[in-house]
Amino acid sequence: MSKNKIFKYLLLITVCFIAIPLVTAHDNDPYLYILGVTQDAGYPQTGCYETHCMPAWVEPGLRRGAVSLGLIDPGSHKKYMFEATPDFPAQLYELEKEAPSADFKLAGIFLTHAHIGHYTGLMFLGHEAMGALGIPVYAMPGMFDFLKTNGPWSQLVSYRNIVLTALQTDRVESLGSLKVTPFLVPHRDEYSETVGYRIDGPHKSAVFIPDIDKWTKWRTDLSGLLKTVDYALIDGTFYADGELPGRDMSKIPHPFVLESMKTLEALALKERNKVWFIHMNHTNPLLNTNSEESKLVRSAGFNVALEGIRLEL
At what angle do helices 3-17 and 292-299 cross, to 10 degrees? Predict the structure, then answer.
């Protein structure tokens, strides 16, 4: 059996194991559709020819895109994206297959912050590429100003490929049956602030926090937050300390997956099962669905995000 077939088989086993809700764009209720799961640079990462990256260079089916979500609302015939990653062309195509443009208008893109894996895909909307017209891009004030005043992003604005829509912290954006609320999180804010999003549907809700510094730096209690939502797609960049040999990982202060699990271990299984680790670095063993680390995470009641998963709202 080829590596690609083995990977697809393991992926199928994993998806079946965690009992993903079977929803499609033909249902009436909105849902999230996971389009990408890795840290900004994807998997395999540029210039990485180590043993953990080489299988994905050899077998394209093992490659994984940077973190992105689709939000599909059959009732309004609209679709949205969270993040515009360097993998935007392929991710937009996956969204197109799931919710074709003939029936679903691309009604907006929500950005979290100005790190390369979260906004640079906007370039594909420009006149050199898609030549899009009037795509709403939702951004916080710092992100809004960064795009408006710095090339080449400002050209997207002046050519009206995109239309910037200003967000405010904790202010609800009403999208028909959906509500999207940004909230500030601590992170390295060289060019803009960083936010997570709460996404409320008619029946269920989710939080999306792909990037954050250590949980102890945030004023919000993660355990308490979990009790208010049905899904939490949270920063799982690194599995454990020491994952980057020769580097001081305190200078890259993401919460380790093991730290997050320790923080939440006292919660009931029902609460732990709301967690989906996402935004994984190319070194993270969770990218291998059959690794011992992946098995440990799932056995503890947590989930690992995979492309193609649907979460009903």
Answer: 10
> Helices 257-264 & 292-299, crossing angle to 10 degrees?
20
The phi and psi torsions of 198 (rounded to 5 degrees) equal -100, 130
Domain ranges of the chain: 22-312
pLDDT of residue 86: 98
Categorise residue 160: left if φ over 0, alpha if ψ from -120 to 50, beta otherwise: left
Gap between the Cα atoms of 269 and 302, Å rounded: 9
pTM above 0.85?
A: yes
Question: What's the confidence (pLDDT) of residue 26?
Answer: 56
Superfamily of domain 22-312: Ribonuclease Z/Hydroxyacylglutathione hydrolase-like (3.60.15.10)
Residue 166's Cβ-side half-sphere holds a number of Cα atoms within 13 Å equal to 7
The Cα 306–Cα 126 span in angstroms is: 29
Residue among 151, 120, 117 nearest 137 (CA): 120
Q: How far is Cα 193 from Cα 284, in angstroms, rounded to an integer?
A: 26
